[in-house]
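Box S1 | Example of a co-folding query
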Amino acid sequence: MARPVRYNLSGESNLKLVKEGPEGLEGEGFFATGLEKVVGLARKNSIWPLPFATSCCGIEFMATMAAHYDLGRFGAERVGFSPRQCDLLMVMGTIAKKMGPVVKQVYLQMAEPRWVLAMGACASSGGIFDSYSVLQGIDQIIPVDVYVPGCPPRPEAVLDGILKVQSLVGNESLRRRSGPRYKELMESYGIL
Ligand code: SF4
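Box S1 (continued) | Returned holo structure for iron/sulfur cluster
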């Protein structure tokens, strides 16, 4: 027997809204909310990550992207390798001091608004490599929004980090990046 086809046009539906909409005022036939909330909702559910992977944490990220953990559930399955089209730089792995300027250049090539996630102990703090050649955390060269601890972090921890980024993205004021505090932050990294 053929399965009945159900359309989500009217009446009771077996489909559920996965993501809730922004807060607002609603009544019969209308819904009103703020522009900032709509932009935040759209941005946070369409993050394009740029994976900058240099070592083992990158392998863990591959597991996070694969079918079992499926980062695509969060609107972030479109991993890009062109900084100009991505808005979340995910640095994963040991970053040697020689590699530092390359990470910074990739960051600078990304358009605003951009966010940064440091995945794992190495990207966050140099990890076990307390040596002359390893950068002791990428926040020495670029601002970091979310740190994910672990060596390597499990995919669940990476997903948690992405959710934290989503929360920052969704709640960010549209004026933040043109404000004096953000300018000050950029200047502290020599970015004008
Ligand atoms: S944090 Fe651990 S797993 Fe990740 S890159 Fe460093 S050594 Fe490898």
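The beta strands are 25-27, 30-32, 49-53, 88-92, 115-119, 146-148. The pocket of iron/sulfur cluster is lined by residues 55-57, 93-94, 120-122, 127, 151-152 (CB under 6 Å).
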